[in-house]
Design brief:
Elements lengths: L3 H7 L16 E6 L9 E2 L2 E2 H18 L3 E4 L9 H10 L4 E8 L9 E5 L2 H10 L13 H34 L4 E6 L12 E8 L5 H5 L2 H20 L1
Parallel strand pairs: 1-4, 1-5, 5-8, 6-7
Antiparallel strand pairs: 2-3, 6-8
Helix pairs in contact: 2-7, 4-5, 5-7
Length: 239
């Protein structure tokens, strides 16, 4: 899995993108959803911002043990805009971006896990509208060409994003059971808009469900969820 512009640079058609991780290792950005003044969904004994940070930290630790260059959008309880989150991944640039969230429902009766990728509109229209906001560093490349490359990479990355989403659902299914599998879905999640690498949003469960909410507060369940996300990312990077 190599970003398109990097491939073109390797064969001498374009300038290079920013450097890869240390010693050529793959670079992953993990985004713990919410934070600071935005607590997110509320569950028994914890809020979404606490749950996502706990799971993200575990995922990062596992990936680093595999030699992956891991970056977080936040490592403490701070407020970040959705644009700031994906901007971190674009500016590194990262090979994969994963945003971790927990769900809630008005009736508090829904449960299960699901993984999102961008809609076609999110890639084509909204992504291009944001093109001046954040760009991938491309030393030696004309700025106008760099913007075009960002557009191309956003589109090309969606095949790999869909593959990563399927891997994530499969790994979660193995650990949380088939009954909770809500599938891979498409939506124009703002935290994914403008990403020039495979980017997904994972909803690990419904924090406000009376049973599942208590399960998500269990460190053992959090470790299983982290293991699933780690496995999916690692398998994707290995291909």
């Amino acid at each position: 899995m190599v970003k398109l512009a990097t491939t073109l640079a390797m064969i001498g058609l374009l300038g290079t993108t920013a450097a890869a991780g240390p010693s050529g290792t793959r670079r992953v950005v993990i985004d713990p959803g919410h934070g600071g003044s935005n607590a997110g969904a509320k569950g028994p004994g914890l809020n979404e911002k606490q749950l996502t940070l706990a799971i993200a930290t575990l995922v990062g630790e596992r990936l680093r043990a595999r030699g992956v260059d891991v970056h977080y959008t936040r490592t403490d309880d701070r407020t970040l805009t959705l644009r700031q989150r994906v901007a971190i991944a674009d500016r590194l640039p990262a090979d994969v971006f994963v945003s971790i969230h927990a769900n809630a429902s008005p009736t508090r009766t829904q449960r299960g896990y699901e993984t999102f990728v961008l809609t076609a509109r999110g890639i084509d229209v909204d992504g291009r509208a944001l093109r001046g906001d954040t760009t991938t560093p491309r030393p030696g490349v004309d700025p106008e060409i760099a913007l075009v490359l960002d557009d191309v990479e956003r589109g090309a990355a969606q095949w790999e994003a869909a593959d990563l989403a399927v891997r994530t659902q499969r790994a979660l299914r193995e650990r949380r059971g088939a009954s909770g599998d809500r599938g891979v879905r498409q939506d124009a999640h703002h935290v994914l808009l403008g990403a020039t690498m495979p980017a997904i949003l994972v909803e690990v469960g419904f924090l406000d469900h009376p049973i599942e909410g208590r399960e998500l507060a269990d460190p053992a369940i959090q470790a299983k969820l982290a293991g699933a996300i780690d496995e999916a990312i690692s398998d994707q990077l290995a291909d």
